[in-house]
């Protein structure tokens, strides 16, 4: 079985989480972890499970304006942050805009600041809605992985992401078996 993890990341945190989820999924899947800028239709062809995540910007998925702000913040001389290749986009929002329909299993995740979700918002909520709108069968609740206010992944979050990936793999294997029976 094949799983594809598509991620967006400005400062590398969501990239780390995506890699850790991929490691967890590899317990049951052949896994590709792909930045959204390179996630063309050919990558999704034949995938049994698609996992999609990005950073929370302005309470939801990034936009061109928030990605620009993220790059400008990192460009300040005092900033220790480095931006990922392709940080300016396209982001997940644009990716969904050009995506077809995929009746396969899927799940959503995000990174966000470590504070109550009611205050921070969660990009994964919009990601899950967009997945459903494109025909995906979302098989897990959206998951958030937490960063500090200085944009560093909290300790344990890569372990938690790997464990989430492992659980998702088990759930997807079950879903695949049930689908084959019906
Ligand atoms: C322009 C901008 C807006 C942001 N807005 C939010 C927000 O509304 N809620 C939140 O939890 N985090 C917010 N953040 C923090 C991001 O969630 C954080 O930078 C991201 O999770 C780090 O992931 P990355 O390293 O993969 O980019 C914002 C960051 C930027 C640059």
Strand content: 15-25%
Distance between the termini: 18 Å
Hetero compounds: flavin mononucleotide
Rounded to an integer in angstroms, the radius of gyration calculated over CA atoms is 16 Å
Tally of separate helices? 7
How would the global form be characterised? globular
Instruction: Tell me the series of helices and strands, N- to C-terminal.
Output: EHEHEHHEHHEEH
Unreliable spans are: none
Mean pLDDT: 96
Number of β-strand runs: 6
Structural class: alpha/beta
Q: Can you summarize the main beta sheet?
A: 6 strands, parallel
Helix content: 40-55%
Task: Characterise the protein shown here.
The chain has 182 residues and is α/β, with parallel strands linked by helices. The protein has helices at 13-25, 41-44, 64-75, 92-97, 117-120, 123-133, 157-181, and strands spanning 2-7, 30-35, 49-55, 105-113, 137-138, 143-147. 41% of the residues lie in helices and 19% in strands. α1 (13-25) links the parallel β1 (2-7) and β2. The mean pLDDT is 96.
